[in-house]
Amino acid sequence: MAVLAMEQYGYYLADGTGAALIDSLEIPDKGIYILLPYKVLKQKDELPHTWDVTSDTIAAWVALQLRARFIKVTDVDGIYLGGMLQEELCAERIIGKETCVDAEFPIFLMKNKINCEIINGNCPGGSLVY
What band does 26 get if pLDDT is binned at 50, 70 and 90? Predict the structure, then answer.
């Protein structure tokens, strides 16, 4: 149900933007695409089925599949620990901590040896998680 909700949100995000909707990891050409994740995740069911996996870990998984640079655009400046914005940190430091990413996210990054840049879509700056 959660993945279907993400799918519906994709339609919402695309409405009136000119961004193309796609439901596979086959990128047809250069451009801006919004992934409808249900079909992709149904065909290649590799992520844990838990509420600890949200669009954060799904996006990391998609970046891994595409061998793409992974940038998470959100509405916060990045990851805060002890009230301080972290410019760069190892994913291990956020396991079990409440941050702007889901609980599975740091584990997935470490397991797959990928980096993530987290930026605020409303202003410049952000954190690098590796």
Answer: very high
